[in-house]
Fold this protein.
Amino acid sequence: MVGLGRTLNQPPYWSPDGTRLYIIGDTMELNLERINREWGHEPQRLVDWGIGLGRKAICTTSFGPFSAVILHMVTRADPAIPVVWIDSGYGTPAMYRYADAVTRLLKLQLHIYRPRRSRAHRDAVDGPPPAIDDPRHAEFTRELKLEPFERVTRELKPQVWFTAIRADETPERARMQPVSVNPDGLIKIAPVLHWTSKQMNDYLKQYRLPNNFDYFDPTKVEDQRECGLHIAH
C-alpha cells in the first residue's frame, strides 16, 4: 500500500485506474480503496498504519463524548503525538474538567489553539453567538474553528491528521471514508468512522477511560449538523 518511486514534482494525482493517489513532493503512493476496504473497520490497525507512515502526524480532539477513545488509540501507537484542541471558549465547565482529566491520564502532548479574540471580547463586540440560520454564523464558524485550524496547519505542518469523526454523527460524515487525502496532500485518517456508540462505550469500559456528555459546540448547535471543519478540510 505504500510504495517507493521517483520524487514527484506536481500536485497529488490519481493513477489512471483510480486506485492509487500519488502525494506531492514525496515518493509515497497510497492504495486508498484497498486500505479502506481491508482496514476501514479496524481502528487500531489504521492508527498503527498511519503512525507507521513516518510522516508528521497530529490528532485533533474536541473533548466531546467518547474523545478518550481515539486519544488512547493514538497515544498507544505514539505517546509523543501532538494532540490539537481548538478551544472556542464556549465549552461547558464539565468539558473543561474532562479535558484536564484526560490530558493528565493519557499524558497528552496537548497543543491548545484558540480564536484570535477571546469569548469575552467577541461577545462584547458582536453579541451572543448567532443562530445557525443567521447569515453571520458562517463567519462565526470561521473565527472559532476554521481560522485556528489554518494556524495549526501552518505552524505544526502536519502530513497525517487523525480525527474521531463518526459516520453516524452527520450525513456529510456518513459519506466519508476512513482514509482520504486532502487536495493539499494531508492524509486524513478517521479510525473510528464506522464504529457505533456502543463500540465506543465498550472500548471506554475495556480500558477504564472516562467519558463526558455535558458538551456544547456553538458552531454546530444541533446534533447531526456539521461544524464546518470537516467540510473545509
Q: What stands out?
A: Strands lie at 2-3, 13-14, 21-22, 29-30, 57-61, 82-86, 109-113, 160-162, 179-181, 187-189. The chain has a mean pLDDT of 84.
